[in-house]
């Protein structure tokens, strides 16, 4: 089981930036992306 404070669904630009910002501020964050062929982020 995964335990986290924040679960970000979607690793597009918005989700990626949000997850990166939270992690940079030492907030436990997991980012989930269903389509790994989307390479831009
Ligand atoms: C054809 C096209 C070309 C574009 N070209 C440009 C460009 O050249 N320059 C530019 O600045 N903008 C471009 N845009 C616009 C840009 O892609 C969007 O503004 C931007 O992607 C929006 O980011 P977002 O994070 O809000 O959403 P999205 O990029 O849509 O990200 C959402 C992510 O969530 C994921 N997701 C959704 N549901 C789930 C789920 N249930 N579980 C897991 N993951 C999930 C999706 O797979 C997706 O990766 C283009 C858009 C299109 C359609």
Would you summarize the structure shown here?
The chain is of the alpha+beta class. The protein has one helix at residues 13-24, and strands at residues 6-9, 29-32. α1 links the parallel β1 and β2 (29-32).
Any descriptors?
single chain; 41 residues; alpha+beta; 1 helix; 2 strands; 29% helix; binds flavin-adenine dinucleotide
Radius of gyration from the alpha-carbon trace, in angstroms: 10 Å
Q: Which structural class best describes the helix and strand composition? A: alpha+beta
Q: How many independent structural domains?
A: 1
Spatial arrangement of strands, main beta sheet: 1-2
pLDDT average, as an integer?
A: 93
Treating each run of at least 4 consecutive H or I residues as one helix, how many helices?
A: 1
Structure ligands: flavin-adenine dinucleotide
The counted number of beta strands is: 2
Helix content: 25-40%
Q: Main sheet, how many strands, which sense, barrel? A: 2 strands, parallel
User: What percentage of amino acids are in beta strands?
Assistant: 15-25%
Shape: flat
Could you give the distance between the termini? 27 Å
Q: N-to-C SSE series?
A: EHE
Low-confidence stretches: none
Could you characterize the architecture of this molecule?
With 41 residues, this protein is of the alpha+beta class. The chain has one domain (1-41). The chain has one helix spanning 13-24, and strands at residues 6-9, 29-32. Strands 1-2 form a two-stranded parallel sheet. β1, α1 and β2 (29-32) form a beta-alpha-beta unit. The chain binds flavin-adenine dinucleotide.
């Amino acid at each position: 089981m995964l335990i986290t404070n924040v679960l970000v669904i979607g690793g597009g630009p918005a989700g990626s930036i949000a997850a990166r910002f939270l992690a940079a501020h030492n907030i436990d964050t997991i980012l989930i992306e269903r389509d790994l062929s989307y390479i831009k982020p």
